[in-house]
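Memo to structure team: turn this sequence into structure tokens by end of day. - J.P.
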Amino acid sequence: MSGATSRLKNILGHLGGIGSKSPAGFDHTHHLHELSPTFFLERAAAIEPNAEAIYHLTANGKVLRRSYGEFAERARGLAYFLLKHGLKRVGVLASNTPAFLESIFGIIAANAVLVPVNYRLKPDDVTYIFDFAEVDSIIVDQEYLSLLDDFKKSHPDVRLIVDLDTDATKGPHAGPFDEAIIEGLEYEKTQETKGWPGLPDCNSEDDMIAIPFTSGTTSRPKGCVYTHRGAYLAALGNVIESGLNYHQGRCKYLWTLPMFHAVGWTFP
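Reply from structure team:
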């Protein structure tokens, strides 16, 4: 979690450059500031760390609840893990699990690119997408590991991070995804700058943030490019259009759309 000074700088940045020196002469870019949706999670965890962020029924039949503080910490741990191992193109093959949601923010916070894939596709299409997107790692729910059998034969060096979708965060019932988060948080402790400020900013808000693919109804699946700015603004549009800025109490939203589908239309 960032400190008060860092949060104030973020707020000033969102006001369009207030607090910075005006450039000598006219600069048509000085009013711009970088927009990236990871700001939303950092902000939520800073303002209401104990508010409930996730309610999920796990594969082992347990109800899992996570606060925004826990959600943000796990996403940050994943980000540091990806940085430690230099992973830049990360595929996700999973249903609507907390691991998928945490991966969306963790991958982006590491300034890497998210490549979500439809788990209903045949293995040949899954292989095609991950090959075309040139992923260097894949976060995969153990339920869909068999979809990667062909891909592993032709890409033995691509790292697989398996999620067991249980309520455990450590021990034998947790699995490699949780171990990666723990490793990332341990790695964070060794860094000079820790927390969210220690994670890299996107070089430009127009940089690629994700490559979602179509399901290949009429031909091979086709990828499109999301940018940091586009995802940020689309997310704000969802808040307004769907009334998530509820005027009383706290809004709750029942998630049913697959998160692999256009990254959930940026709702996550």
